[in-house]
Write a structure and sequence with these properties.
Strand order of the largest sheet: 4-12-11-10-9-5-6
Order of helices and strands: EEHHEHHEHEHEEEEHEHEEHHEEHEHHEH
CATH superfamily of one domain: Type I PLP-dependent aspartate aminotransferase-like (Major domain)
Number of strands: 16
CATH class of one domain: Alpha Beta
Largest sheet: 7 strands, mixed
CATH architecture of one domain: 3-Layer(aba) Sandwich
Number of helices: 14
Radius of gyration: 23 Å
CATH topology of one domain: Aspartate Aminotransferase, domain 2
Strand content: 5-15%
Helix content: 25-40%
Length: 440
């Protein structure tokens, strides 16, 4: 709930003028969320650039509603949702900023744009182990997955497409299949979900399409990729959370279609890719131009493509060392939670992508923990970012433990990134202890 006294000036939903000074309405505060916990507000989330506390914030701080550290410094531990832009990718965007780069134009500027675009395609193809002709740039993983599924559905018009999928998939796949079910364009066979966090793909044989992500986006559990390959069924592999975290090459994976997301690997938002031998058999979903081998009409975002490819190359080069570092941080965090007397259960078994820690603490809802940690300066999640805007209970954890609603409701997702260090995870463990002890 947004407290009416903290709404920006001019907000038509405000019923009364803000009692706070105009400084609050000049960009010092990116957003303020107040969640009632008994008789007091529990969360105040501020822009990470804010350093000086104006009178209203000193008022909140003095009453223990929000710590000064939470107001002045954030520790970002939600890298599965999105990652900070890498300096190298940012440098690409700065270098190309302002250039008129339309890769469809025939003049010299257009030819330069075409060279940059195809150079980015070649670099990305090399990074992910695909042929250049098998890489289609999109606006992100959601569009890529839609193009894959709807493109196959439209290519087969004589009957509904038989799809095997599970509750572990990202919302963009689950939602797309639900929409197509209503239109009688697909028939969906639900794959079972094991308590380990892996989908059971034994019933996938005979399907026209298997949807199986490489790494589950909430638990980090690596799925049965070898089993999917052995099924002999056309396979859409959402590798958004896998690329840069586990060894993954499109030409060795065996999937027909593979989804890659830029902003999950330190690249810019607004671009992704669909790759694999299956792209040639898809029906375009955005028409009106010849771009992307007539699979996606529209002027390509050349600077984003170049920055994406650069981030992908760096993610591959750093994968082994970074995975080892994040795995060590997992041990530090779990050890600190245990030594602090926190009784928790980890959700999802090995093998896991390094840097994913999904735990449930009995007696606490994950959404409450996220809010309480946010008040103390930590950015975490209780589920996938596309779902937690409404703080819904995780479909993935619910499917893993169908008889344990408390465990699913209590799930807290902590995900590390390139900048995460030991001090960050120790501070998080201390904050969790404070929250738990406060409840006791």
């Amino acid at each position: 709930m947004i407290h009416p006294g903290l709404r920006a000036q001019g907000d038509p939903s405000s019923q009364s003028a803000s009692p706070f000074p105009p400084a609050l309405d000049q960009g010092l505060i990116a957003g303020v969320v107040l969640a009632e916990a008994g008789s007091r507000a529990d969360v105040v989330k501020l822009d990470h650039r804010h350093t000086a506390l104006p009178p209203p914030l000193r008022f909140l701080h003095a009453r223990g509603i929000c710590s000064r550290d939470a107001m002045t410094r954030r520790i970002y531990l939600d890298h599965a949702a999105t990652t900070p832009l890498r300096p190298e990718a940012a440098a690409v965007l700065r270098e190309l900023e302002g250039e008129p780069l339309n890769a469809s134009s025939v003049h010299r500027g257009g030819q330069r744009a075409r060279r940059l675009l195809e150079g980015a395609r070649a670099e990305l193809a090399e990074a992910i182990g695909a042929r250049e002709t098998e890489v289609v740039f999109t606006s992100g993983a959601t569009e890529s997955n839609n193009l894959a599924i709807r493109g196959m559905v439209d290519a087969q018009r004589d009957r509904p497409l038989r799809v095997a999928s599970s509750a572990l998939e990202h919302a963009c796949i689950r939602g797309t299949l639900t929409a197509l079910l209503r239109l009688h364009r697909v028939e969906v066979t639900a794959l079972g979900v094991q308590a380990s966090g892996r989908a059971s793909i034994d019933v996938a044989r005979g399907a026209d399409l298997l949807c199986l992500l490489a790494v589950q986006n909430e638990t980090g559990v690596v799925q049965d990729l070898g089993g999917a390959r052995a099924c002999g069924v056309p396979w859409l592999c959402d590798a958004s959370q896998a690329f840069g975290k586990i060894a993954l090459r499109v030409n060795e994976l065996g999937a027909h279609l593979v989804t890659i997301s830029s902003h999950k690997i330190g690249g810019p938002l607004g671009i992704g890719a669909l790759a694999g031998p299956g792209v040639a058999k898809l029906t375009a979903q955005i028409t009106g131009g010849p771009q992307e081998a007539e699979l996606r009409a529209g002027t390509q975002a050349v600077p984003l493509a170049v920055a994406f490819a650069r981030a992908a190359s760096l993610a591959v080069a750093e994968r082994e060392a970074e995975s080892a570092r994040r795995l060590a941080l997992e041990g530090v965090l779990l050890g600190a939670l245990t030594s602090n007397g926190i009784e928790f259960t980890r959700n999802g078994d090995e093998p896991r992508a390094a840097g994913f820690v999904n735990i449930s603490i009995r007696g606490f809802e994950g959404s409450d923990l996220v809010i309480a940690l946010d008040a103390r300066g930590f950015d975490t999640s209780s589920g996938a970012a596309c779902s937690t805007g409404v703080m819904e209970i995780s479909p993935a954890i619910s499917a893993m433990f169908p008889g344990d609603a408390e465990r699913a409701a209590g799930a807290l997702r902590i995900t590390f990134g390139r900048a995460t260090n030991e001090a960050d995870v120790l501070a998080l463990a201390a904050a969790v202890r404070t929250i738990v002890e406060g409840r006791r």
